[in-house]
Design goal:
Helix content: over 70%
Shape: globular
Number of strands: 0
Largest sheet: none
Oligomer: single chain
Distance between the termini: 10 Å
Number of helices: 23
Structural class: mainly alpha
Length: 491
């Protein structure tokens, strides 16, 4: 069994275990043990910390994926490449902390009514930012040494299990509000330590500043890191800015409702994230080898199978979300349209395959940075315009629109520059199957909510699977054959 297959299987298992824990947290633990306001505070703190972490990284995740193969040499400790992975996020965080501290009053003034949240929880946010930026770097390093499955387990499973434990400790009065928020940063600190120990155990890295003094690639690395930093910052801002603006224009209760509803919708993208972790280093190597034929194969297959798996998830979520939310306490049912809209955007993002990695590790990554900047401006404008008028649904519409625009731009760029496109007749068949599966379950009604969820879920997934077989879009034998065809590419 090849490395890619082993890592792929483990990543899939850990990713879906993380999904289960995430859904347990989102649909049961948080709504039943936290108030809407407490959920809102939690999401604002985590989103702010994540955005600041993206500023602190200085593009280190993309740098590691792109340049690690160049320095790879176990006997020479990879020429002290780990020095870069450790230094960049630390330097970036110090600069980020200084800038935020200097402009703190201006930031709080801009945010308005809920600005006190950022003032009260300034230090937990800073701790989250620091731990997160180091986690980003160590995760990329783990992926580069073919330990992506272990990092996935730490980031997807242990993180969410820790989050649930923190909520339960708080709900039973063992921790208070402030200590609960601080305990969230403790989860990320634990992740950081475990990832470091994984790297130390499997790779035995060395730290030496001679990496910076005797390095002919340093100028290129810095240039690439600055462009990648810009891309990463804008990408993470695009993912988190909706929560921030809902908090600016609406109450913390509404932030809580939006956070729950949007998270459920974004579950659709989980297989894309898992696949991209494995595919990114391979695409980087294929570009270095100028093997565009294999890249095109990965592009097509990633689109096809992500459409299938994410399409199945989308069908079940769309038809079941209304009765699911109606079962939660404190009335979260108003968020069901948010989930459906976010689902549409997330499916489009997944259906276009690993296009982000193709652009990032090609010679056109600078164009990617320009596109991300324009998209960030667009999503800020859309949130400012739509949220005051349509509330949390406006934030969802803005997010979905940006997903459509962004992937259309990526599609055009890859088509024009590389003559590649990921779609086929099977793609149209899958879209038709998704539509039929949703319609088959949408009009099923019964007063028992649990029975309704079961019937709609079974009807939708049943029609989906049967249609795949009838139309010959998917077969296990075909999937195994295609995986084997990549054996030499991925070793």
């Amino acid at each position: 069994m090849t490395v890619i297959r082993r890592q792929g299987i483990k990543n899939t298992v850990y990713t879906y275990l993380g999904i289960i824990l995430g859904m347990l947290s989102t649909l049961y633990i948080q709504p039943f043990f936290l108030s809407k306001e407490q959920i809102g505070i939690t999401r604002l703190v985590i989103s702010a910390g994540t955005i600041l972490a993206s500023f602190s990284c200085i593009g280190i995740t993309a740098v590691i994926v792109k340049y690690f193969p160049i320095f790879y040499n176990k006997e020479k400790k990879h020429n002290y490449f780990f020095t870069l992975a450790l230094s960049f996020p630390i330097i970036g965080f110090v600069l980020c902390f200084a800038i935020v501290s200097f402009f703190e009053s201006a930031i709080l003034k801009f945010y308005g009514n809920n600005a006190a949240i950022f003032s009260e929880y300034f230090w937990p946010i800073m701790l989250l930012a620091f731990f997160n930026c180091m986690i980003f770097a160590f995760t990329a390093y783990c992926n580069s040494i073919n330990k992506s499955s272990i990092s996935t387990f730490v980031n997807e499973v242990l993180n969410r299990a820790g989050f649930i434990i923190c909520i339960l400790l708080f709900s039973y009065g063992i921790t208070m509000q402030n200590t609960f928020v601080y305990s969230l940063s403790l989860i990320y600190f634990t992740q950081l330590v475990i990832l470091f120990l994984i790297i130390k155990h499997y790779d035995h890295p060395s730290f030496n500043f001679s990496f910076f003094t005797n390095n002919t690639h340093l100028k290129k690395i810095i240039g690439f890191s600055l462009i990648s930093a810009f891309i990463q910052i804008t990408a993470i801002c695009i993912k988190n800015v909706d929560v921030i603006f809902v908090g600016k224009y609406r109450s913390l209760d509404q932030v809580g409702v939006y956070a729950i509803a949007a998270f459920i919708g974004l579950v659709i993208e989980t297989p894309l994230g898992a696949l991209d972790k494995i595919a990114a280093p391979k695409i980087s190597k294929l570009f270095a080898d100028q093997n565009h034929v294999e890249i095109a194969k990965i592009y097509k297959l990633s689109s096809k199978y992500l459409m299938i798996f994410c399409g199945l998830l989308s069908c079940v979520l769309v038809v079941c979300i209304q009765p699911v939310l109606s079962l939660l306490p404190n009335d979260y049912s108003s968020g069901y349209m948010v989930t459906i809209i976010i689902c549409i955007g997330a499916f489009i993002n997944s259906a276009t395959g690993v296009n982000q990695s193709i652009i990032t590790y090609s010679n056109f990554y600078k164009l990617g940075a320009v596109f991300y900047f324009l998209l960030l401006v667009c999503i800020i404008i859309l949130n400012v315009v739509l949220i005051p008028v349509y509330g949390i649904m406006g934030a969802a519409i803005a997010s979905a629109l940006i997903s459509v625009i962004h992937n259309l731009i990526r599609f055009i760029l890859i088509k024009v520059k590389f003559k590649m496109q990921p779609f086929s007749w099977d793609s149209l068949k899958i879209v038709a199957i998704i539509s039929a599966s949703v319609l088959a379950a949408w009009f099923i009604e019964t007063e028992n909510k649990f029975l309704l969820i079961f019937l709609r879920g079974m009807a939708s997934s049943g029609v989906f699977v049967i249609s795949l077989v009838i139309t010959n879009v998917f077969s296990i034998k075909e999937l195994k054959k295609e995986i084997r065809s990549f054996k030499n590419t991925f070793i």
